[in-house]
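Q: Sequence in, structure out?
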Amino acid sequence: MKALKERIKKDGEAIGTEVVKVDGFLNHQIDVQFMSQLGKEFRRRFADLKIDKILTVEASGIAIACMTAPWFGYPPVVFAKKTKPNTMTDEFYGAEARSFTKGTVSIIRVSKKYLHQGDRILILDDFLAHGEAATAMTQLVSQAGAEVAGIGAVIEKGFQGGGDRLRKAGFRLESLAIIEKIEKGKIRFV
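A: Exactly. Output:
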């Protein structure tokens, strides 16, 4: 998506050779109008899909999932929690996910009330690096007996291999911008 690549070049910051900081519009301060354009682009790319729910993981994926939902007719947005709150008294689906950004491992959880057998799920997230969060979300969907209709990432760091692994596993993956490499403070797109 040309507008996203331009925005990353304008407002993003390369940190080392593996980190892209886009917190000014995507995951710390949110440019709501731009995020809606990203949601519209996900709808265009997944126009052939009928989906029942959008699944993401807290916290950065929630904004893009919520801004995409109107373009699909307002399906519920379900987000996996990274810690078990004391209010989660129901049974839940759980899967292990490593956070590239934080360097931590979490069990992400979704209450069994919110994912059901036969649901067609669109998984969305802000970043795709090694594919740990996306893979964990596919496991939650599988545990529920639901179907992964597609996976979308706003920014994929192609050089970290997660997207390739998901595609090889047979998932339909659409990334709005794919970064080929980060070198000497420059972000290069595929």
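Residues 27 and 50 are 27 Å apart (CA to CA).
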